[in-house]
Amino acid sequence: MVNTATAPARGTHIRASAVSHHFDLPAGPLPVLDGVDLDLAPGEFVALLGPSGCGKSTLLRLVAGLEPATQGHLTQDGAAITRPDPSRIVVFQDPTLFPWRTVRGNVSLGLQARGVLKAQRHRVDEALALVGLTEFAEAFPHQLSGGMAQRAALARALVNDPSLLVMDEPLGKLDSLTRLTMQGELVALWQRAGFSALLVTHDVEEALFMAQRVIVLSDRPARIVAELHNPLPYPRHRGDPALAALRHTALRHLGLDATW
């Protein structure tokens, strides 16, 4: 059984101030974000929830430093975010494992790229143990289930000891039972490691089950329409009436509460 004791927060402080963004298309600028203010405390777990295509993933890319914002400022611990950094690791919906490398080989990529694999090889074993893949270290990606492949992608992220884990629908392509299991495992990893977590999801229940705070975004260009705080302790129970009430509130802000 995974130990879910919460580690001391060692995550990073992320702040987005008046962030707006647009894409330059042949027909003209396409606004995607409109004056977004976001404050992520060290060690906090925050989920972004909103309609498909509203700009959630774009905001993640800006936080990760993959591209600059059109307007506004993004900072990490007070320093401007201008480029990608190993302290901010992104986990995407697809595991994107190299098929010719074993699980161990995929997990070790970050250390290898930084030239520290020889000195820090033990971190690979620690990351594999953290996600429960020790026995599959020498397996290849085609030998893994969808959930196991996503665990390998998480181990590849965690081996770099990030202070922020940015997750873009990381469970979106898993079957429903595996997805439920992985939600609990991700929360346990966050509690054990103490990093800050920023999750994009279209799943209202997933956001409320996993996160301490849920930011609800509008249609594109995205604006923050609500912040829902979930005070329930971990581990949470999906049938808790308080979760049901929060779900109804989230759906109301999304305009989808008429049938609930």
Integer tally of domains: 2
Which descriptor suits the 3D outline? globular
- Helix-and-strand structural type: alpha/beta
The parts where pLDDT drops under 50 for at least 5 residues are 1-6
- Beta-strand portion reads 15-25%
- Mind telling me the CATH class of the largest domain? Alpha Beta
How many strands? 10
Q: Please state the CA-atom Rg, rounded to the nearest Å.
A: 18 Å
Percentage of residues in helical conformation? 25-40%
CATH architectural type of the largest domain: 3-Layer(aba) Sandwich
Mean pLDDT across residues: 89
**Span from first to last CA?**
35 Å
Largest sheet entry = 6 strands, mixed
Supply the CATH superfamily name of the largest domain.
Answer: P-loop containing nucleotide triphosphate hydrolases
Across the major sheet, the strand order is 6-7-8-3-9-10
Order of helices and strands: EEEHEEEHHHHEHEHEEH
Number of continuous helical runs:
8
CATH topology of the largest domain: Rossmann fold
What do you see in this structure?
This protein has 260 residues and is of the alpha/beta class. The protein has two domains: 1-87 and 165-260, P-loop containing nucleotide triphosphate hydrolases (Rossmann fold, 3-Layer(aba) Sandwich); 98-161, no CATH class. The protein has eight helices and ten strands. Strands 6-7-8-3-9-10 form a six-stranded mixed beta sheet, with helices on both faces. It has a four-stranded antiparallel beta sheet with strand order 2-1-4-5. Residues 1-6 have low confidence and may be disordered.
